[in-house]
Amino acid sequence: MVSCSRPLTKIDSFSLTPLPTELYLRHKYALVYPPNTPNDPAGIPLTLPPLLESTDGGACVAMVGKDCVAIACDLRLGLQALTVSNNFPKIFNYAPSTYLGLTGLATDVSTVSDVLRFKVNMYRLREERQISPQTLANLVSSSLYEKRFGPYFVSPVLAGINNTTGEPFICGFDSIGCIDFAKDFIVSGTASEQLFGTCEGLWEPDLGPEDLFETISQALLNAVDRDALSGWGAHVYIIEKDKVTKRLLKGRQD
Fold it and tell me: Is the distance from CB of 132 to CB of 161 less than 8 angstroms?
């Protein structure tokens, strides 16, 4: 949408120019803006469209505990301020102790999850074993980087337990696959700023499974209550070496 302090008059030569590449435009999207005009040397003030990562909303967080790890996501699917669904989980299972959370553009969340499902299945057939969290992290990174010139608008979060060593593992990614390793917690989504605050205040080292569940639940629910684009309940997975516990959290529905 273009806003101007005076009515727009006739423009002799008006052409549409693509937005800067740092706004991660993909070739299939026709987001454009008008250039400076001769009648307005200072340029027309612009209201740029929102980044596509935040169009559908969503929040995801992973935390490390003592011999366990937790990952949680909200359930909202929206179109900016319009809520479309309150049952849109964003966490996908790729091995008995390995889970991946995907926030961002909902269509890309579905695409990336299916692409990774295919690649993980091929890995399992070829190697005749389950994929480890570290291997899946590299697979996610290479798959996203493969599309770096037209990236998927997603911010993955990975959590799992290495079946060989029993060590918990979490990491996050940007839209072109740069890995962010962590020893405490990883956040993503439109509520990232709020999640950083709640996680820094509540997380402690060496939390047991029940304490870790309470911590990640309080961190996520309090964060999404302060973000209009996420919330409406949550799924929480507590991953241990011998079992995985899934719980549904009821959040505010407004």
Answer: no
Question: 149-153: which pairs have CB atoms within 8 A and are 24 or more residues apart?
Answer: 150/26, 150/27, 150/28, 151/24, 151/26, 151/175, 151/176, 152/104, 152/105, 152/108, 152/111, 152/112, 153/24, 153/51, 153/52, 153/53, 153/104, 153/105, 153/108
Six-digit token string for 57: 């909303």
- What DSSP state is assigned to residue 2? B
Tens of pLDDT, residues 197-235: 999 999 999 999 999 999 999 999 999 999 989 999 999
Q: What's the pLDDT tens digit per position in 57-87? A: 899 999 999 999 999 999 999 988 888 999 9
Q: Give just the sign of the alpha carbon dihedral 105, 155, 72, 193.
A: negative
**Going from the N-terminus, what domains does the chain have, and what CATH number goes with each?**
1-49 (no CATH), 52-249 (3.60.20.10)
pTM: 0.79
Residues in the chain: 254
Contact 162, 133 (CB under 8 A): yes
Q: Are 183 and 206 in contact (CB under 8 A)?
A: no
189, 193, 199, 200 alpha-carbon torsion, rounded to 10°: 150
182 three-state secondary structure: strand
The CA-based dihedral angle spanning residues 63, 110, 80, 99, taken in that order and rounded to the nearest 10 degrees: -10
Identify the three-state secondary structure at position 221: helix
Q: Determine the Cα–Cα distance for residues 213 and 207; give it in Å rounded to an integer.
A: 9
